[in-house]
Amino acid sequence: MRLKIILTFLIVFALAAVASAQTKISGTAQCGKPDPEYSIQVGDRANHSFAIDQVKCTWTKGWEIAGIQDKEGVGTEFYEIRGNTPRGHTYAVDTMTNGDKAYYREEFSFTLKDGVPQSGDVKWTLVGGTGKLKAIKGKGTCKLTSAARDGSSTWDREGEYALPK
């Protein structure tokens, strides 16, 4: 019985230590119009296509990892559009002010009205990086806060990350 209590205490302590190792993060990114941007119609029905593009973003608020401010990012996106609902994947590379890079994998979906995104959701996973961010891990979400007819958009991001000890 005493052994069970001790083991339970150790497990709870270990989980608390792991949980406390997570660092909360949030920020806002301003993204330009995708360039380049390619789309191929499937041909089975109207408004069904596959697309690939690349988008450049700058951080207008927050997004500091391990004490290093994020400078800019580039996301390469592949997605399927069915009517007014694009869904797809992004692989993003952020460059920090010290030159280190952070690598993300993302899944997204959003809704369009007259070709302009109206709402959007992203689930991101921080999968690694270079320099101080080499073995970093993290996860979070991102929401579209505004989009313009010119293809630019603003996204609020939040989540958490952990660096290896």
Describe the protein.
By secondary structure, the protein is mainly beta. It has a single domain, classed as Beta Barrel (AOC barrel-like), CATH 2.40.350.10. The protein is built from one helix and ten strands. The protein has an eight-stranded antiparallel barrel. Strand 2 and strand 3 form a beta hairpin. The radius of gyration is 19 Å and the shape is elongated. 18% of the residues are buried.
Helical percentage: 10-25%
Beta content comes to over 45%
The CATH topology label is AOC barrel-like
Radius of gyration: 19 Å
Number of helices: 1
Distance between the first and last residues' Cα: 34 Å
Give the total of beta strands: 10
Say which CATH homologous superfamily is assigned: SO1590-like
User: How do the strands line up in the largest sheet?
Assistant: 1-3-5-6-7-8-9-10
Name the helix and strand elements from N-terminus to C-terminus, one letter apiece.
HEEEEEEEEEE
Shape: elongated
Query: How many discrete structural domains?
Result: 1
Q: Which CATH architecture would you pick?
A: Beta Barrel
CATH class: Mainly Beta
Q: Structural class, from helix and strand content?
A: mainly beta
Spans with pLDDT under 50 lasting ≥5 residues?
2-20
